[in-house]
Batch of 4 targets.
Target 1
Amino acid sequence: MTNKLKLAGLILAAGLTSMSAQALANNASQSITVFHDPSCGCCVGWINHMKEAGFSIKAIQTPHMGVVKDKLGVPQGLDSCHTAVVDNTGQLIEGHVPASAVNKMIADSSVEGVAVPGMPVNSPGMGPMDGNLVTVDLNGQPFSKD
C-alpha cells in the first residue's frame, strides 16, 4: 500500500506541475501593453505581479496618462494609476487588477474590460491581498472578488 500511495503522490505532483506549466504557457501567449507614469513604483509592482502570473508584458512609460486613458476610453470614476490593454483582444485593464481577474476577463470575450479604481492597499503592487478586493467591469458592476 505504501508504494501505491507514493506512486499516487508522484502522479498527482506531476499533474499539478503540468497544470501550472500549462497555465503559465497560456498566459505567456497573452501579451499585455501597460501604460504608466515613469515615476510610479506601484505600477512596476503590478507589472511584476502579472509577469509572475506568466503574462508577457510590454511597459510604456508616459507622463501623459490622462491622454492615454481618454484615447482608450477609461470611464471616469474607474481610473487608477496605470492602464493596460490585452494585445490580441483589445480588452482594457485599469489599475491594480489581480491576474486571476484578468484571466477571468480574457476567458469571456464579451467583457470589454475590468478595473480596480484608485489605488487600494489590498491590491497587487500596493500590498498583500486579503480576499476583499473588488474588481469591477467598465460599467462599474462587480466582476470578481479576490
Note: The first helix runs from residue 2 to 28.
Target 2
Amino acid sequence: MKSNAYTDIKEVNLAYLMLAQSMVRADREAAVFRLGVSEEIVDVLARLTPGQVLKMASTDMLLCSFRFNDTLLLDLLANHERDRGAAHVHAAILAAGKPVATIA
C-alpha cells in the first residue's frame, strides 16, 4: 500500500510540474494567478530542465498543495447548486485575494 501511494505522488508531481511549466510558457500572468505562486517561483519553473523536472517529481513529498485553507472557498468550489457559475466566480475572487507562495 505504501509503495503505491509513493508512486501515485510521483505521478502527480510530474503531471503538476509539466502542467505548471506549460502554463508559464503560455501565459505567465495567468499562471501566477492560477497556480497561486509568486513571480519568483514562476521564474524557477520556467528554467527547469526536463531532467530537473524528473528529479523533482521523483520525491515522495507532494509538490502541489491546496491553494486555500478555509472552508468558505472549499464550499464555493464544491458547490453543486444551480448557481454554480456564481459560486465559482466568487471563489475566484476570494482566491485572487489570497497571498501567493514565495521562495523561503
Note: The two ends are 33 Å apart (CA to CA).
Target 3
Amino acid sequence: MQEFTDLLNNQLLFWSLTACILAQLLKIVFNFFSSGEIRWAVIFETGGMPSSHSSLITGITSGLGLELGFDHPVFALGVGISLVIMYDASGVRRSAGLHAVQINKIANQLNQADKLNLKETLGHSKLEVIVGSILGPLITLSGLKFFGSPLDIIHSISRFF
C-alpha cells in the first residue's frame, strides 16, 4: 500500500504524464481543424500536432529543474535526453515516415493487388515538436506550482465532502 501512496505522491510523474495525455487529446482538435473530421483514433497514433513525446520529456526536465535546481547534473541530463528525443522525432522518425510514403507509392504502382501500406505518420514537423516542448513545461510547472501531487488534490477535494 505504501508504494501506491508513494506513486500518488509523485507530482512530477503525474504532471508530465498529464502533459503527454493532453498533447495526445489535442491531436483530435488539431486533426479536426486540418481535415474537418473528428478521428478519435488519432489519440493512439504517433506523429501529428503537438508532439506528446516532446511534451512528456520537456515536462519532466523542467520539473526536475524546478525541484532539484537548474544547476543540478540531473537537470543537465534531462536537457540532453530532451534534445535527443526532440531531434529524433523531427529528424529520424519524420524521415522514416516520408520514406514510407514513397515506398507505399512504389509498391502500389508495382503491384496494386498487394498493398504494402507502411505506417507513414511516424515523426513530427519542427513546429509540432516546438508546440509539444512548450506544452510540457506549461502543464507540468503549473501543476507543480498550483496543485501539487494527486494525493494533495485528493486531500483538497475530500475537505469539501
Note: The chain has seven helices and no strands.
Target 4
Amino acid sequence: MSFEPPLKNKAEQDETSELRPKFNADGLIAAVAQDADTGEILMLAWMNVEALSATLKTGRGTYWSRSRQSLWVKGETSGHVQTVESVQIDCDQDAVVLKVRQSGGACHTGRKSCFYRTIDPETLQLRHE
C-alpha cells in the first residue's frame, strides 16, 4: 500500500477526503493508541508508511521502533495484542489515533497505559497514578 503525498495547499489538505498522510522528515507519523471503550490514552508510538499500511490491512497495531529501526506488531512478543477498531487522522494528516482493544498492558512495563505518572507543577516531581 502506498499513499499520495500531502496536498501543498493547507486548506485543501485539511478538507480532502483522500488519505494523504504527512510523515515528518524521518518518514514517521505520531500514533496514539486509545482504549476503544474508555477513551483512556494507552500509548504514543510512531509509524512509517509500512507500519500504517500494515495496521490498516491487518487490524493489528503495528509501529516503527526508532530504537531498533524495525517494525513491531504490538503483542508479538508480550502477547498483549492490540486489535484496532478504528483509525482516525487529524486535520492536516500528521498524526493518527488508533481506537484499540488491548489485551494485557499496553506499556512495556506491564501497566495498562504508558501514561501512569502525573507531573506536579510546583515540585516537578512525578506522582504515580
Note: The longest helix spans residues 49-58.
